[in-house]
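new request in #modeling-help
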Amino acid sequence: MTEYLSVGDKQYEITGYAEDGAPILKAQITTKEEGFDNDGNPIRSVNINIPPATVTPPVVKEQ
Amino acid sequence: MAVVTHLYTIIVNDALIGGIAWTSATVNCALFSASTFTAGDTAYTTSGTEVASANGYTTAGGAVGTRTLSTASTTPQLAKITGAFGGGSAGTTTWTATGAGFSAVAAKLYIVSGHPIAHIDFGGTQTASGGGTFTITWDATNGVFNAASS
């Protein structure tokens, strides 16, 4: 069953958990290759969408 | 592949003692070719290897520009980057990779002449080259990080 983390009006798919318990959010990385430059290097671009830092649920003290 | 953002312990401490001015400090974003998150680092260069100065990248990275914070009565508090570095659109940090380009596995936000703020692990090696762009797009809705009251 897929888990999601809701932050504000966005939802991020949780793909796992780090050693410290922080949820690992689904990558939003896109790459693009558009031929080669004059020296033969691939013209490669990458765009990395950064999710917000993990929000630690606030601690509520029991009364 | 996952992108994970961690905050450094020192910056949380700074926030509690009034030692960070998110909207007025000079904040840079630097790229690293090797790095793991070490929570207790007090300098952005302590752990990992920054991408070398070549092919469109210069060590120390670039100033991310304008940052915003929610009004005092709003929860969660959203710390956003709305400025642009490298000629991209608002809320992006961009390098144009020339020639063979460069690769990075992580980015670090830090206060210039101050403490590291956040470590962003790309989940794998990302490469730009040949005049292509290496772009980091910050979350325009939820910010780089946020904190909720209870």
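bot summary: Chain B touches chain A through 41 residues (CB under 8 Å).
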